[in-house]
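Now for our specimen.

. . .
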Amino acid sequence: MKLAFSTLGVPGLPIADVVRLAAGHGYQGVELRAHPEEAVHPGSTTDERAAAVAEFTRGGVEILTVAGYARVAAEGEDVPVLEEIAALARLAHDLGAPHVRVFPGGGGQDPATADATAVRRLAAAAPYAAGLGVRLLLETHDSHRAGADAARVAGAVGHDAVGALWDVMHTWLAGEDPAASHAALAPYLGYVQVKDIASAEDTTPVALGAGVLPLADCLATPVSDGWVCWEYEKRWHPGAAELPGLLGAGRDHLLGLVAPGR
């Protein structure tokens, strides 16, 4: 199992410090939040992208994903969404990241309508992403929070450049058993995104193992490429504990959940 953490947990931290945190705490990769608040985002210059790559290369840490905010099932015109996905794919390519995270964002639409919109847009974006060597991962989130929901869309697209990202909190909140989530997502799974929370009513992030999420059950099934990423939502919960002080124990907890010999 290879471990990563999301920069959502260290909002605004300079790239050099992110790399030092990862390398110093035994994390092989980082999921980069692609937002203008952060050091690297779709508006970053060529030089800024190259500088980020150099920092990660020096530290021996991989860039796992460009975590974008494109909402593929959202109401509205296709073109702005496709342009946003294309910009994220170019950023991932320039950074050497194999994945781009996208959200469903279907809102309160009829599920069939939201599905059709997501499938149409992802199918249109897939060839461009594939040409850049990038895979688009639809996260289990909001309107498509169950594994079955994300798998339904990815399966309908039917392109190798479109897969799924398993956010274990959302599948749990959807009432889906971890074994069922994995079974649905397995054909499309890019990697697993773990976290822990205080309760279903209070999603404030807590240290891994200190909350209610069934992390052991989620990691009891094989992960497609061995990556597990800790998404600690510090950006949305500024009162939560600082992530750097939790990284070492979090690594040990995750490694301890993996059965010997896996």
In short: Residues 127 and 161 are 7 Å apart (CA to CA). The longest strand covers residues 62-71.
